[in-house]
């Protein structure tokens, strides 16, 4: 840990007034947000309190929103506003407890201009008492235990402490200890091999404040030692950086206690993608290094322990493959915590790409003949750092699965029942990530009704529907799901479809050509359409969907 | 519901047993400081289980389990979140213990307890 001592000394001398308190809680919130996935991953219950990290982050975010524009220097007023924001925005169990902790804290300092030591100790005590009052049977080994131990430690140390910063150090240390003890108090945590998620979240919140004082980064997640089995070498491969030519994996048993900070620091001088796993005293280290440094990690580790196994692999060879697949990889926009995330079902690669460019957060592959399961849809958004999700099924056969996903999740999900890809795209155009989820879904619902959908495909059997006779193998045209024409060629089928859709009265036609459709042929047909409808704007896009030669959007 | 037939015979889980699970789950939920007696005029609900002292009633209707809980919440908490988390926790614990789906968990906030005003 590198501590900026000059900064600490400067901050130590300054009193913690309302504005300083504001900066501290902002740092705490930022640090918690950075680590929210770590907290989420500690959840042992699949349902109660869904994602603890997300809930706590959203609660504190609401608290922060309440104070972010406040100019007061009075500590009590600032803390009261922060606590009020947390109360109003409390999400889930952990959020409610957090809001109570803050409520107690703010009560402890309500008449204070600045945070002095007796006030700080008293406020932590109030935080503890208020938190415990909220439940008939407090369960130990949870966030409650963490605030209790923190307050107790502050009370014990109160007399011998010089300034508030030192007390913060004591509090953070106590919280850390308490979190580590939670598995001993709550058997279910021990069985799952984790510490309590809410307690860990509270710890991150307080640690963020301390990191702010120390001048440490709040954006990079804390280093983690995983269970040995969880060191995912496949994942690490995806982040190969230029110049890191060799992957080195060393298994070793350290002589004596391993100093993780020092260990990481040393490795960071050598390369990137550092992962450390531990299991029963055995460690596994994974790193990417440049060619000339490929033996350095091994030499270094031999100095601090017994190396049991070494594996070195040339990444250049693997990079070729990755670069190839990267070209076809789609970049999705990151979801801001608390914003709405859109999940779409897409039948083809090109269509996925278009959706991604419109700002969807995830794509589930699926379409007419390959309907994704509820689970597929669910897992696409379960881990997102938001609880507001909109699903666009883009196919009438998938609407049901989307609705089921809505049933089984604790997140607030809206299904905008788009039955076709053009409807989905039209809905997406009116998407606003920061709006109210129901209002946004409503708007998207309206937007999708303004578009007509045409589909060109090949009949798989002979039938007569809606007065149209179709022979096996013929080209058929569907308008908004209804069979409207059959033809011998894709071109004539497309023209008949546009006729039926009264294309002359519309403005834009977009052709999404399928995987069986050559690009050149698609362009040729587009030219034929332009020739027939001179006022119509015709666009050609790669859709990549199977079975459908064309999906047309007619607006 | 609450009944299962195996090759050895039947298993019947009484509503009281379900209520006990719900009772413990509720009391461990954060923000709940007590259970309120169920209002006796509260509909013509079945005669099967009534545990007014506990404020929890469990009914089996056809193939469905319905749970009603009357709670007293700590003043100063976000009532909505507390109630939601009671519903989630109760559903989770009952479903885990029974292996049966709970159709509905209705949480009635019967009152608030004020231990601190601020």
How is this structure best described in words?
The complex is a heterodimer of chains A (555) and B (118). Chain A is built from 22 helices and 17 strands. Chain A is an alpha/beta fold and 555 residues long. In chain A, the strands form 4 sheets. Chain A has a 6-stranded mixed sheet with strand order 14-13-10-17-15-16. Chain A has a 5-stranded mixed sheet with strand order 1-3-4-2-5. In chain A, helix 7 packs antiparallel against helix 8. Chain A is elongated, with a radius of gyration of 29 Å. Residues 226-240 of chain A have low confidence and may be disordered. By secondary structure, chain B is α+β, with helices and mostly antiparallel strands. Chain B is elongated and about 60 Å long. Chain B has a single domain, classed as Alpha-Beta Plaits, CATH 3.30.70. The chains are: A alpha/beta (555), B alpha+beta (118). Chain A binds chain B through residues 45-49, 80, 87-93, 95-97, 99-100, 103, 106-107, 110, 130, 133-137, 139, 410, and chain B through 27-34, 74, 76-78, 81-82, 84-85, 88-89, 91-92, 115-116, 118.
Short descriptors:
heterodimer, A: 555 residues, alpha/beta, Alpha-Beta Plaits, Rossmann fold, 6-stranded mixed β-sheet, 5-stranded mixed β-sheet, 22 helices, 17 strands, 48% helix, B: 118 residues, 6 strands, 28% helix, elongated
Q: Would you give the CATH topology of chain B?
A: Alpha-Beta Plaits
Give me the CATH architecture of chain B, please: 2-Layer Sandwich
Helical stretch count of chain B?
A: 2
* Number of discrete domains of chain A: 4
If you compute it from the alpha carbons, what radius of gyration of chain B comes out, rounded to the nearest whole angstrom?
15 Å
Question: H/E element string of chain B?
Answer: EEHEEEHE
Assign the CATH class of the largest domain in chain A: Mainly Alpha
Strand count, sense and barrel status of the largest sheet of chain A are: 6 strands, mixed
CATH architecture of the largest domain in chain A: Alpha Horseshoe
Radius of gyration of chain A: 29 Å
């Amino acid at each position: 840990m590198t501590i900026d001592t000059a900064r600490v000394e400067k901050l130590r001398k300054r009193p913690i007034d309302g504005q300083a308190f504001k900066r501290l809680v902002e740092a705490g919130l930022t640090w918690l947000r950075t680590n929210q996935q770590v907290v989420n991953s500690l959840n042992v219950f699949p349902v109660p309190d869904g994602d603890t990290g997300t809930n706590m982050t959203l609660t504190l975010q609401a608290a922060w929103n309440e104070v972010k524009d406040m100019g007061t220097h009075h500590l009590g007023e600032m803390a009261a506003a922060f606590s009020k924001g947390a109360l109003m925005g409390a999400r889930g169990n952990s959020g409610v407890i957090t809001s109570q902790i803050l409520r107690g804290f703010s009560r402890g300092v309500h008449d204070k201009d600045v945070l002095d030591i007796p006030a700080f100790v008293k406020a932590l005590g109030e935080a503890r008492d208020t938190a415990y009052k909220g439940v008939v049977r407090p369960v130990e080994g949870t966030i409650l235990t963490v605030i209790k131990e923190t307050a107790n430690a502050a009370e014990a140390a109160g007399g011998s402490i010089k300034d508030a910063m030192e007390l913060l150090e004591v509090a953070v240390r106590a919280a850390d200890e308490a979190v580590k003890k939670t598995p001993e108090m709550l058997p279910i945590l021990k069985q799952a091999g984790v510490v309590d998620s809410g307690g860990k979240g509270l710890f991150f919140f307080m640690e963020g404040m301390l990191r702010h004082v120390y001048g440490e980064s709040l954006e990079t997640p804390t280093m983690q030692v995983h269970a040995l089995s969880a060191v995912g070498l496949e994942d690490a491969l995806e982040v190969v950086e230029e110049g890191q030519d060799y992957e080195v994996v060393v298994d070793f048993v350290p002589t004596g206690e391993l100093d993780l900070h020092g260990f990481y620091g040393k490795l960071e001088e050598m390369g990137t993608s550092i992962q450390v796993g531990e299991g029963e005293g055995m460690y596994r280290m994974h790193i990417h290094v440049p060619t000339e440094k490929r033996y350095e990690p091994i030499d270094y580790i031999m100095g601090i322990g017994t190396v049991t196994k070494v594996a070195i692999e040339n990444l250049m060879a693997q990079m070729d493959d990755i670069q190839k697949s990267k070209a076809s990889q789609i970049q999705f926009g990151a979801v801001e915590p608390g914003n709405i995330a859109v999940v779409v079902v897409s039948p083809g690669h090109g269509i996925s790409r278009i959706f991604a460019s419109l700002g969807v957060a995830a794509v589930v592959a699926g379409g007419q003949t390959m309907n994704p399961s509820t689970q597929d849809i669910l897992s696409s958004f379960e881990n997102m750092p938001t609880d507001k999700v909109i699903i666009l099924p883009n196919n009438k056969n998938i609407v049901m699965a989307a609705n089921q996903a809505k049933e089984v999740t604790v997140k607030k999900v809206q299904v905008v029942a788009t039955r076709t890809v053009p409807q989905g795209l039209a809905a997406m155009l009116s998407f606003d990530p920061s709006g109210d989820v129901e209002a946004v879904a409503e708007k998207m619902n309206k937007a999708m009704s303004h578009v007509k959908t045409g589909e060109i495909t090949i009949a798989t059997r002979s039938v007569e529907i809606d007065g149209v006779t179709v022979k096996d193998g013929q080209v058929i045209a569907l308008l908004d799901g209804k069979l409207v024409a059959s033809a011998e060629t894709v071109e004539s089928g497309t023209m008949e479809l546009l006729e039926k859709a009264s294309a002359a009265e519309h403005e834009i036609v977009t052709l999404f050509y399928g995987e069986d459709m050559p690009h050149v042929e698609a362009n040729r047909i587009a030219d034929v359409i332009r020739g027939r409808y001179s006022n119509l704007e015709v666009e050609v896009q790669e859709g990549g969907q199977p079975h459908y030669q064309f999906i047309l959007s007619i607006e | 519901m609450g009944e299962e037939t195996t090759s050895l015979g039947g298993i019947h889980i009484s509503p009281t047993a379900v209520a006990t699970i719900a009772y413990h789950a509720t009391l461990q939920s954060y923000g709940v400081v007590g259970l309120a007696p169920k209002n006796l005029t509260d509909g013509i609900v079945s005669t099967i289980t009534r545990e007014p002292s506990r404020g929890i009633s469990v009914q089996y209707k056809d193939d469905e389990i319905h749970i009603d809980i009357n709670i007293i919440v700590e003043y100063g908490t976000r009532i909505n979140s507390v109630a939601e988390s009671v519903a989630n926790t109760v559903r989770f614990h009952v479903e885990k213990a029974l292996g049966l789906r709970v159709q509905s968990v209705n949480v009635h906030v019967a009152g608030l307890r004020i231990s601190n005003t601020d």
